[in-house]
Amino acid sequence: MKTNTDVIMEIIDYIEENLTENLNLDKIAYIANYSKYHLHRMFTNVVGCTIHQYIQRRRLTEAARQLIFTDKYIIDIAITVGYSTHQSFTLAFRNLYKESPQVYRNKDEFYPIQQRFVLNLNHQIQSEKCISYANMNYKQRRDEINSYLNFNINCEVKVA
Questions:
Q1: Domain range spanning residue 77?
Q2: 22: domain CATH number?
Q3: Which of 1, 28, 126, 140 is the most buried (most CB within 10 A)?
Q4: What is the pLDDT of residues 99-151, one digit of tens each?
Protein backbone atom coordinates (compact mmCIF):
# COMPACT_ATOMS: atom_id res chain seq x y z
CA MET A 1 0.00 0.00 0.00
CA LYS A 2 1.26 3.45 -0.90
CA THR A 3 2.14 5.91 1.83
CA ASN A 4 1.20 9.58 1.67
CA THR A 5 4.76 10.45 0.72
CA ASP A 6 4.70 7.89 -2.12
CA VAL A 7 1.52 9.47 -3.48
CA ILE A 8 2.96 12.97 -3.14
CA MET A 9 6.17 11.99 -4.92
CA GLU A 10 4.10 10.57 -7.80
CA ILE A 11 2.21 13.86 -7.92
CA ILE A 12 5.49 15.80 -7.89
CA ASP A 13 6.68 13.65 -10.81
CA TYR A 14 3.46 14.40 -12.69
CA ILE A 15 3.75 18.13 -11.99
CA GLU A 16 7.38 18.22 -13.12
CA GLU A 17 6.58 16.35 -16.34
CA ASN A 18 3.65 18.67 -17.08
CA LEU A 19 4.88 21.96 -15.63
CA THR A 20 4.05 23.91 -18.79
CA GLU A 21 0.52 22.48 -18.99
CA ASN A 22 -2.63 23.89 -17.41
CA LEU A 23 -2.36 22.28 -13.97
CA ASN A 24 -4.76 22.79 -11.09
CA LEU A 25 -5.85 20.98 -7.96
CA ASP A 26 -8.99 19.52 -9.55
CA LYS A 27 -7.07 17.97 -12.45
CA ILE A 28 -4.29 16.60 -10.25
CA ALA A 29 -6.76 15.20 -7.71
CA TYR A 30 -8.68 13.49 -10.52
CA ILE A 31 -5.49 11.95 -11.92
CA ALA A 32 -4.34 10.84 -8.45
CA ASN A 33 -7.84 9.51 -7.65
CA TYR A 34 -8.11 11.51 -4.41
CA SER A 35 -10.56 14.15 -3.32
CA LYS A 36 -9.10 17.60 -3.86
CA TYR A 37 -9.55 18.40 -0.16
CA HIS A 38 -7.67 15.33 1.02
CA LEU A 39 -4.95 15.77 -1.60
CA HIS A 40 -4.53 19.44 -0.66
CA ARG A 41 -4.03 18.57 3.02
CA MET A 42 -1.70 15.67 2.22
CA PHE A 43 0.44 17.71 -0.17
CA THR A 44 0.69 20.69 2.16
CA ASN A 45 1.63 18.42 5.07
CA VAL A 46 4.42 16.66 3.16
CA VAL A 47 5.78 19.49 0.98
CA GLY A 48 5.10 22.49 3.20
CA CYS A 49 3.16 24.56 0.68
CA THR A 50 0.01 24.17 -1.41
CA ILE A 51 -0.02 22.54 -4.84
CA HIS A 52 -0.79 25.93 -6.41
CA GLN A 53 2.15 27.58 -4.63
CA TYR A 54 4.48 24.74 -5.59
CA ILE A 55 3.48 24.87 -9.27
CA GLN A 56 3.75 28.65 -9.46
CA ARG A 57 7.11 28.73 -7.70
CA ARG A 58 8.49 25.91 -9.84
CA ARG A 59 7.37 27.68 -13.03
CA LEU A 60 8.86 30.98 -11.93
CA THR A 61 12.09 29.32 -10.83
CA GLU A 62 12.35 27.72 -14.26
CA ALA A 63 11.67 31.13 -15.81
CA ALA A 64 14.40 32.69 -13.65
CA ARG A 65 16.81 29.97 -14.80
CA GLN A 66 15.97 30.69 -18.44
CA LEU A 67 16.32 34.44 -17.91
CA ILE A 68 19.89 33.97 -16.72
CA PHE A 69 21.08 31.03 -18.83
CA THR A 70 19.39 31.76 -22.18
CA ASP A 71 18.91 34.71 -24.52
CA LYS A 72 15.21 33.98 -25.11
CA TYR A 73 12.79 36.88 -25.17
CA ILE A 74 10.90 37.35 -21.92
CA ILE A 75 7.53 36.70 -23.60
CA ASP A 76 8.86 33.41 -25.01
CA ILE A 77 10.00 32.36 -21.54
CA ALA A 78 6.61 33.37 -20.12
CA ILE A 79 4.77 31.21 -22.64
CA THR A 80 7.23 28.32 -22.19
CA VAL A 81 6.58 28.17 -18.45
CA GLY A 82 2.81 28.34 -18.80
CA TYR A 83 1.81 32.01 -18.72
CA SER A 84 -0.45 33.27 -21.49
CA THR A 85 0.51 36.95 -21.35
CA HIS A 86 3.60 39.02 -20.66
CA GLN A 87 1.60 41.01 -18.09
CA SER A 88 0.47 37.99 -16.04
CA PHE A 89 4.01 36.59 -16.09
CA THR A 90 5.62 39.88 -15.06
CA LEU A 91 3.12 40.36 -12.23
CA ALA A 92 3.67 36.82 -10.87
CA PHE A 93 7.46 37.10 -11.27
CA ARG A 94 7.54 40.47 -9.53
CA ASN A 95 5.39 39.15 -6.66
CA LEU A 96 7.79 36.27 -6.04
CA TYR A 97 11.19 37.74 -6.89
CA LYS A 98 10.36 41.34 -5.88
CA GLU A 99 11.67 42.68 -9.20
CA SER A 100 10.72 42.55 -12.85
CA PRO A 101 12.05 39.80 -15.12
CA GLN A 102 14.18 42.35 -17.00
CA VAL A 103 15.80 43.68 -13.81
CA TYR A 104 16.41 40.10 -12.66
CA ARG A 105 18.04 39.23 -16.00
CA ASN A 106 20.26 42.30 -15.86
CA LYS A 107 21.59 41.25 -12.43
CA ASP A 108 22.86 38.03 -14.06
CA GLU A 109 22.57 36.02 -10.84
CA PHE A 110 20.37 32.93 -10.64
CA TYR A 111 18.80 32.10 -7.32
CA PRO A 112 16.13 29.40 -7.33
CA ILE A 113 13.12 29.99 -5.14
CA GLN A 114 11.64 26.51 -5.49
CA GLN A 115 13.68 23.56 -6.66
CA ARG A 116 12.03 20.22 -7.35
CA PHE A 117 10.90 18.69 -4.06
CA VAL A 118 12.71 15.42 -3.32
CA LEU A 119 12.89 13.00 -0.41
CA ASN A 120 15.72 10.66 0.43
CA LEU A 121 15.16 6.97 1.20
CA ASN A 122 14.38 7.79 4.83
CA HIS A 123 11.77 10.32 3.68
CA GLN A 124 13.75 13.21 5.09
CA ILE A 125 13.38 16.44 3.20
CA GLN A 126 16.34 17.29 0.99
CA SER A 127 15.04 20.52 -0.50
CA GLU A 128 13.84 23.62 1.23
CA LYS A 129 10.14 23.82 2.03
CA CYS A 130 8.98 26.68 -0.19
CA ILE A 131 11.71 29.02 0.98
CA SER A 132 11.11 32.63 0.09
CA TYR A 133 14.47 33.98 -1.03
CA ALA A 134 12.84 37.36 -1.60
CA ASN A 135 12.72 37.87 2.18
CA MET A 136 16.44 37.14 2.60
CA ASN A 137 19.33 39.51 2.27
CA TYR A 138 22.08 38.86 -0.28
CA LYS A 139 24.36 36.96 2.13
CA GLN A 140 21.52 34.69 3.31
CA ARG A 141 20.54 33.93 -0.29
CA ARG A 142 24.15 33.21 -1.25
CA ASP A 143 24.57 30.88 1.74
CA GLU A 144 21.32 29.03 0.92
CA ILE A 145 22.31 28.66 -2.73
CA ASN A 146 25.81 27.47 -1.84
CA SER A 147 24.31 24.96 0.57
CA TYR A 148 21.97 23.72 -2.16
CA LEU A 149 24.74 23.52 -4.76
CA ASN A 150 26.99 21.62 -2.38
CA PHE A 151 24.17 19.12 -1.81
CA ASN A 152 23.03 18.66 -5.40
CA ILE A 153 25.29 17.40 -8.16
CA ASN A 154 23.13 18.11 -11.22
CA CYS A 155 23.10 21.90 -11.29
CA GLU A 156 23.67 24.28 -14.13
CA VAL A 157 26.45 26.70 -13.35
CA LYS A 158 27.15 29.71 -15.52
CA VAL A 159 30.86 30.21 -16.05
CA ALA A 160 32.01 33.64 -17.18
A1: 2-104
A2: 1.10.10.60
A3: 28
A4: 999 999 999 889 887 777 776 544 444 444 445 555 565 566 666 655 554 44
**pLDDT on residue 111:** 82
- Determine the longest span between alpha carbons in the chain, in angstroms: 50
Answer for the pair 59, 53: CB distance below 8 angstroms, yes or no: no
Are the C-beta atoms of 58 and 16 separated by less than 8 Å?
Answer: yes
pTM of the model: 0.72
